[in-house]
Amino acid sequence: HNGSTWVSALTVEYRAKLDPSEVRPTIINLTNHTYFNLDPTMYSGVCDDDEGHKVPTVPETHTLQLHANQYLPATAALLHTGDIIRVSSDPAFDFTSPKLIARDIDAAHPQIAVGRGYDHTFLLTQDSHTPGLKPCAQLTHEASSRQLHVSTTQPAVHFYSGNFIKPGRVQIAFTDSVRFVTLQPRSGVCFETQRINSHLPTIVLPPGTLYKETTRFELRSTVPESPDSSINSAADPTKFD
């Protein structure tokens, strides 16, 4: 605890180096695809039956701030087009101030249509040449005041609003049992910190060079609560996106 605020953090460090016998460079761009949902009602009514409690969606109840003033539009295959757009000229992608995710997630916008919501890379405003963690994103569940703060050494973050999550049942592990919940599209959102191939640092790893990046996920709550209720994530999200 920190005063009246409960804080829990996960720091992920990525390190890689080529085998000493390798003489050719390789491509590397490691990230994390954890889903976050800070809504405490996710746990109300959690049960052991075949259907399970339906997980509430994130966009209608969470605000988001991204420390990014540019984003990369995507093709129909969700690959970067190579263009870079300033969010100040595209309000649907402007999260420089906290904004309810639902506000523009279904807007009549060609890029929103491509991803069925947000599935885009944002360039962080941090100076990537300055060492250490810099602010990346802040997700807030307004009703409970729970917050997720993301900081990173990476130059970009891919924000995914869970648009392609398939409805299905997953297990949630508690300290005393394992119970079921039912996912639906947008039941969780992801912050995939990463490099991009058009900016430094490069995604090419030469022989003898150490790849090293760090991302920190810090959860805060103004009401002390047990760790069981602080992080809501699917047991095996790769089955659903």
| Total number of strands | 16
- The spatial strand order of the largest sheet comes to 1-16-10-9-4-7
Q: How would you spell out the order of helices and strands?
A: EEEEEEEHEEEEEEEEE
What characteristic shape results from the CA principal axes? globular
Structural class: mainly beta
Radius of gyration: 19 Å
Tell me the span between the first and last alpha carbons: 34 Å
Count of DSSP-assigned helices = 1
What share of residues are in beta strands? 35-45%
Please bin the fraction of helical residues: under 10%
Largest sheet: 6 strands, antiparallel
Mean pLDDT: 86
Q: Which regions are unreliable across 5 or more consecutive residues at pLDDT < 50?
A: 227-241
Keywords:
single chain; 241 residues; mainly beta; six-stranded antiparallel beta sheet; five-stranded antiparallel beta sheet; 16 strands; globular; disordered C terminus
Give structural notes.
It contains one helix and 16 strands. It is mostly beta strands. Strands 1-16-10-9-4-7 form a six-stranded antiparallel β-sheet, with no helix packed on it. Strands 6-5-8-11-14 form a five-stranded antiparallel β-sheet. The chain starts with 5 loop residues before the first strand and ends in a 20-residue tail after the last strand. Residues 227-241 have low confidence and may be disordered.
In short:
With 241 residues, the chain is mainly beta.
